[in-house]
Amino acid sequence: MAATPSPPPTHQLPNILHPHTLSGERAVHVPPLQRRRPSKAAPHTAYRLLAGACILVTLALLAWGASQGKPLAIGLVAVPVVMALAYPVLARYCREERTFDLLGIVYLGLALRFVGSYYRFTIAADAKSYYRYGVQFADSFRNFDFAVDLGRPVPGTGSVRWFSALVVVFTGPNIYLEFVVFTLIAFSGMLLFYRAFTTAFPNGDRKRYALLLFLWPSMAFWPSSIGKESLMMFGIGLASYGASRMFTHRPLGMAALAGGLAVLALIRPHMSLIVIVGVGVAYLFVRSTRGSLWLSGGKILAIAVLLIGGAIIATQTAEFLKLDDFGQDQLDVVAQSTSDRTAQGGAEFTPIRADSSPVLFPAAVASVLFRPLPFEAHNQDSLIAAAEGLLLVAITAASWRRLARLPGRIIREPYVAYAVSMVLLFCFVFSVIANFGILTRQRTQVLPLYFVLLAIPAAREVASATREPRQRPTLLTDPPRAT
To answer: Which alpha helices (H) appear in 326-471, and where do they start and end?
Structure first.
């Protein structure tokens, strides 16, 4: 009896559901390894394991600090509780991302901020002052008396004291709990920055941006404390998110932008002015719903609102800087005063001021973003800052293909135009700072927007996306794509 031939493997069977097979034409078979399935991020990755390790390190540091008599024992309960409550919230925030483990990256970023918060606590100076005033004013706040004498001007340091008192009302007189709250405020700003990026620039490199945004060392360190940096991070993040919604014609964009500008105006009015200018420049590249760049009625109204808001904040900025007007002579005086005031404390240097000559502007931008250089570091803190600056230089150099596409992206992507405007304006204003410690801390305000420029898709990715639109996963029985 003749042996019955074994059936061919399943993946070699003809596709009987395809009409070309029934008509006698040869079917194109799909190997098993090419079968497309809906992508799903791995449930457990190295990012989540590292997050767990960071939490253990934080708890060990808190336990050691508590044994030294520092008020950190509450952190042994607060940190695990916050991380446990944050996980489902962040899981919901990251649920739409299926191409990489966004949840792991974000969760690791939060864990790193608690490590940074501990070290910020150990060197806290201004933070302890804000806390003391917060405890002092909290009793008045509980009696609904919010018009207290803050002792310092508003906008400025007085605003931070006022907000510190508001936090103490809910946390009670425990300085580390207030550190936790301010750390979460700064982290919320990071979440807003990422949402702004994906809203206004959906074809950007999301994984690259998430890695830079959530895991960059100075971003996890400086804003994780009671102080201006955490509030500024939230304010710029909220304003950027509002701008992204405006650029994409989504509701509540103007409201979010106004909320972010209000926070900035209470802390550092000159930053709110920089944001308004950046949004105004970028809004010129916003296309109407019909795809045109011409000024529509809605765009004219939005620009008018920005101009009015800019005029109001400019007046507030002039009062904050003690200017009679924005004349060049007075601006030079303020810039020189800032440079002289910051040139102290053991980390002073000679800045490259962008206002001195247009020829020096590129060097001033590089100075603000990348200094101190390794040969300029003279202690442990400046060595760490120099290593981070050198890493940023390397990433920037490796991103030259992405940066080469920047001019075209500015025209097509308003959020990229906004990021470029913010970076250039920030570098122009802050190039007068003459202290590496202050400069390293201040530039955390603009790094999330500089990272946008490093997350522009590479040329081959853009070309591929242009040639062939992204399609939904196909089944084995789908007809083959013509090549």
So the answer is: 328-342, 361-370, 380-398, 400-404, 406-412, 414-430, 436-442, 447-454, 459-467
Where do runs of H (alpha helix) occur along 94-174? 102-122, 126-142, 157-171
Q: What would the two tokens of residue 201 be?
A: 């620039």
Phi, then psi, of 145 in degrees rounded to 5: -105, 95
Spatial distance between the Cα atoms of 396 and 452, rounded to a whole number of angstroms: 12
Long-range residue pairs from 227-230, CB within 8 A, at least 24 positions apart, any chain: 227/126, 227/127, 227/130, 227/160, 227/182, 228/160, 228/267, 228/268, 229/186, 229/441, 229/444, 229/445, 230/182, 230/183, 230/185, 230/186, 230/189
Distance CA 483, CA 97 (A): 30
A 10 A CB-CB count for 16 gives 9
- CB-side neighbour CA atoms (13 Å) of 250: 13
Question: Taking the model in full, what pTM does it have?
Answer: 0.82
481 against 402, higher pLDDT: 402
Q: Which residue has the tokens 């996306």?
A: 465
Largest Cα–Cα separation, the chain: 108
Closest by Cα among 393, 456, 388, 431 to 220: 388
Q: Note the pLDDT of residue 424.
A: 93
The enclosing H or E element of 122 equals helix 102-122
Phi then psi for residue 359, to 5 deg, are: -65, -30
pLDDT of residue 333: 46
Contact present, 402 and 456 (Cβ < 8 Å): yes
Q: How many residues does the chain have?
A: 483
CA pair distance 354, 370, nearest whole angstrom = 15
pLDDT digits (tens, 9 = 90+) for 9-42: 544 444 434 444 434 444 444 444 444 444 454 4
Spatial separation of the C-alpha atoms in residues 473 and 118, rounded to whole Å? 46
Using one digit for the tens of pLDDT, what is the confidence trace for 147-179? 889 998 888 899 999 999 999 999 999 999 999
Question: Which tokens hold the place of 189?
Answer: 């700003």
Mean pLDDT of the residues in the chain: 81
Given the structure tokens 């308004």, which residue do they identify? 276
| CA atoms within 13 Å, Cβ hemisphere of 463 | 6
Locate tokens 């020829």: which residue?
Answer: 359
Q: How far apart are CA 237 and CA 297, in angstroms?
A: 27
- pLDDT score, position 10: 46
